[in-house]
Every structure is written in C-alpha cells, then in structure tokens.
Design a protein that fits this description.
mainly alpha, two-stranded antiparallel sheet, 17 helices
Amino acid sequence: MVTDAKNPLGETTCGSLLQKLQEIWDEVGESDEQRDRMLLQLEQECLDVYKRKVELAAKSRAQLLQALSDGRVELSTLQSALGEKSSVGFPEKTSGTIKEQLAAIAPALEQLWKQKEERVTQFTDIQSQIQKICGEIAGNLSLGETPAVDESDLSLKKLDEYQSQLQDLQKEKSDRLQQVLEYVSTVHDLCAVLGIDFYSTVTEVHPSLNDSTGVQSKSISNDTLSRLDQTVLALEEDKKQRLHKLQESAAQLIDLWNLMDTPEEERKLFDHVTCNISASVDEVTVPGALAADLIEQTEVEVERLDQLKASRMKEIAFKKQGELEEIFARAHIEIDTEAARGKIMELIDSGSVEPTELLADMDDQIAKAKDEALSRKDILDKVEKWMSACEEESWLEDYNRDENRYNASRGAHLNLKRAEKARILVNKIPALVDSLVAKTRVWEEERGISFNYDGVPLLAMLDEYAMLRQEREEEKRRLRDQKKFQELQHTDQESVFGSKPSPSPRPVGTKKVVGPRANGGPNGTPRRLSLNAHQNGRSAVKDAKRDPRPVAPLNYVEVSKEDAASHVSGTGSGSDLIPASP
C-alpha cells in the first residue's frame, strides 16, 4: 500500500493522489476487493513505467559507450592519418563516468578534425596545382574535376612529397616558359629579317603565343615546343636560302656595275643589298634585309642590267680589248690590234658565242697578259735603266761637243753636275747590259720563246749594241792615232818652215752609236725613236726590218766630244752616221 507523503511545496504527489482515490472510493462505496485489484493494476503500471525508463537508460548507456569507443577509434585514426607529428594526443583521463570520458576526448577530436580539414585543404590545393601544371605540359588546358585526396594519409611527410613534386613541376614550367619565350623572340627576329608577319606565324603554332595574352597564359606543352622548334628551323633555312640568293644577285649586280662603269649614285640605291654580300647568316639582323620583295627587286635589277649589258656588248668588249692592249703596250709586247678587234666584231655580230662567255674569255686573256707582264717586269725595268743610261750618254756626247760648256753662262753649273752624274752612269752601262743579257737568256730558257721588245728580239738588240760599242771603241783608237800623226806632221812643218798660225782644224763628224732613244734616222733626218708601242719606236723597228743594212738598237749613244774634235777632214765625211733602227 502506498503511503502518503506530503510535499512541502504543496505539489501533487503519489500519496496525495492515492489519498484522493480512497476518498472517492469511500464516497462511492467500492469494495475492498475492488480496491485491491485497482491498486495492483496501478502498481503494475508503475512497474512498466520503471522498466521502460531502465531500458531507455541502458540503451543510452550503450550508445554513450559506443560513442566513447567510436571517439577513441576516430581519435586514433585521425592521429594516424595526420602523422606522428600531430600535436594532439590521447587524453590522460581514462576513468570516471562515460560522459566524463566523452567530455575528455571531445576537445582532442575537435582539434584533430580541424587539423584534418586544414590538411585536406592543403592537399587539395597542391594536388590541383600539380594537376594544372601536368595538364599544361600535356597540352590539356581544360580544368578537370577537383582531385580526390587520400584522407588515410594526410601526414606532413606526404604533404612534403607533394610540395616537392609541385616545386619540380613549377621549375619545369618556368624552364619551359623561358624556352617558349626564347623561341618566340627568335621567331620574332627571323620574321623581322624575312619580312614575314610575326603574329600570324606564332598564332599558327598556338593562339596563346601572341602578345595579347599574358606570359603565364602561354602554352608550354610538348607539342607547342616541338612546333616552335620546327618553325624556327624552317625560318632559319628560309633565311639561309634567301641570303644565298641575295648574295648571288648582289655579286652579279656588282659585276655588272663594274662591267658597265655604273655611277656611284646608282650603286648607292642598293647599298642595303650589297652590304650583306659577304655576311654570314647570323650577321644579318636588320629588319627587312631578306624580305621577298627586296630579293625580287634585286633580281629585277640584275635582269635589267643583263639586258643593258647585251646592248652594250661591243662597247664593253672593246673596253676590255683596250685594257688588254694597254697591258701589252706597257709590257712592250707587239700584237695585231686590228685583227683582234675585227675578230671581236665578227663574234658579236654572228652571235656564235654568248656575251658572258666572250667576256669571260677576255677576262682570262687579261689575267694571262698580266701574268706575262709580271714575268717581264724585272727585265723591262733594266731595259728602262739601259735606255735612260743611253740617253744620258747621248746628252753627254752633245755636252762634250759644246765648246762653250765652260763659259759662265746661265745654268752652266747645273749642266756640269749633270755631266758628272752622266759619266758615272755611262760607266755602269757594260755591267747593266751583261746583267740584262743574263736575265733575258734565263727567261727565254724557262719559257722556250724569244723575249721580244716591241716585236724585236731583245738579245739581238743587245748584241747589236755591244758590236757597235766595240766598233766605236776601235774608231776612237783610230782617231787618237790619226790625231797623234797629224800633230807630229805639224811639228815637223814648224821645224822646217817655222812656226806660223794655222787655222783650227775643221771638226769632222764621227760615227756615233745611236741608243734606243737617240735622234736621227738613216737619211740624217731628225727623228725621235722610242720602243713604246704607242710612239714612233715601233714604226722605227719596222723600218729597220726593211733596211738591209746593219742596224743598231734604239737610243744608242753618240761618240764623246773629245773624240769628235780629233777628226780631220781626210778621215771621212762627218755626216756619216750609223742608221737607227727600232
């Protein structure tokens, strides 16, 4: 039977309710049996309520224990995933009520969850960057799904591995970007030199390579690098071919200019072309230097000059022939100029030979003529010295015949000095002639031909000169003997008839050795002789060839005045001279 219990606060309790129920039963008149049955029912209902409460409490306890177990497992799992370096460990309190234990691990779990979220964020960011750079290298610029993070391993070691991988990829990206920029710069320079549109060229490789996009947005894929490399190689090959073509045209241009004596003003119009005639591929960096229209313009100019050259072929050929004749003239080589010019006219008029071939052949002839002239130079220099010495000898002869040479006239002291130098030079003539003969013979032996001087064999001229010089010496000795004989006769007459004035002997002309540039012809007429092909020497040589009499080479020297003064009237005519010959 439940006893009544008073609540000090005056609230309804089980006892007050039971008392109220008994009052009602008393008033109603319920039997004791009925009352006992209702009380038993009431107690059973109370037991059922307690049972349910106990069951609920037991279930709640089980859930708390499971939560505690799960919390400890999760704590262990998080610590394992985050690594040993995690700053959060197991709570020290492992006893007490379940709720106290749960309350002890809750902060640790919360902190580990926070660390896990931060770590996942870091992994996601790094893996996203890695995925992006790998996509750029692979050429796949489209952004894919967010990379899945392996939450079972969120350790700092794993994070460091991803960071190291990211740094390697970033360095590779930087290197690739630098390589792309270098390629683009090279393409820009090549396009500028070749006169090609740069933007269309790089856009054809990849749209991101033009200047409208940022540096970091440019493609760095393997395909882009490969295509850039191929583009650079193609442009460099194009540059090489264009430079070769331009240099060929420039060389032809210069040859045609030189051939036709093009004025400097006209040549300056193509200075930007000819300045690269000997340049290497790497040295040509001026924008537009190898543009297609410039090369075409140069080729058009070459074609125009070629056509002009064909119309001026005769003028050019005769100009080269004149150059050839001038070389032969300076080398004193006799050629038939009229026949050569006639042959040139015939070849040009007949069209049997290409103009370029004819000019090339004449250039070869000029080169050979220069070589021939060079081989004769040493001998010709000695011939000039010999001729100069003979001229001085001739002047000295005239000077010695001048009876007034010692008078105090104007310029007499200059002539006296010249006479002294002339005597020294004349004394060197024999040695000079001997050296000239030796060199000439060596030259002829090496080439197997005769050394001709304006068509006359030089050795024949020297032999003739030596012979006439010897004859002159003999004549001088004869004149000296005759002079002594006359003086002796004059002394005898004075001893017989006594001394009396006698007219001075009439000077008698002597035979004079005519040098290569002496005056006087076979008939005694004044004539200036020279071995120069463009003066009278050549005609004098031909005259000497037609003259059957023995002749001397040009410019032989006359007999000295003292020998001429010793002539007497009975020795022969003073006007007899050795005929000059070329």
